[in-house]
Design brief:
It contains four helices and no strands. With 111 residues, the protein is mainly alpha-helical. Helix 1 packs antiparallel against helix 2, helix 1 crosses helix 3 and helix 3 packs antiparallel against helix 4.
């Protein structure tokens, strides 16, 4: 049940949050170089990093639970043990994929 609730919450966070962020980015582009520099300063600040990690986790968590729902839509994984295992795997995937993504961004620049 928790995976279903988090799936809906992450979907809404990506939909509404990304739309607001994209709109702000377009408005910053249209407002000129001074405001766009201000936008970049916010995005590349520690607060921007936290928001970026949060959006990334939302995407990977939503993807993991979406795959779980896809498997269940195919008629598999309805017994309690398998369902719980897939739920934990969905949460684990979200966290591990987010960590791997940001590790690649910060550590993979030299590659």
């Amino acid at each position: 049940m928790a995976v279903s609730i988090v799936h809906r919450a992450t979907g809404n966070a990506m939909a509404f949050g990304a739309v607001l962020f994209f709109t702000w980015w377009l408005a910053a582009l249209a407002s000129g170089p001074d405001y766009y520099r201000f936008f970049q300063a916010i995005v590349f600040s520690p607060l921007g990093l936290i928001v970026g990690v949060g959006f990334t986790w939302c995407m990977f968590q939503h993807m993991g639970s979406g795959l779980r729902h896809f498997i269940m839509d195919a008629g598999e994984g309805y017994d309690l043990a398998t369902s719980r295992c897939m739920a934990l795997m969905a949460f684990g995937f979200g966290v591990l994929a987010t960590a791997a993504f940001w590790a690649f961004i910060f550590l993979g620049k030299g590659l």
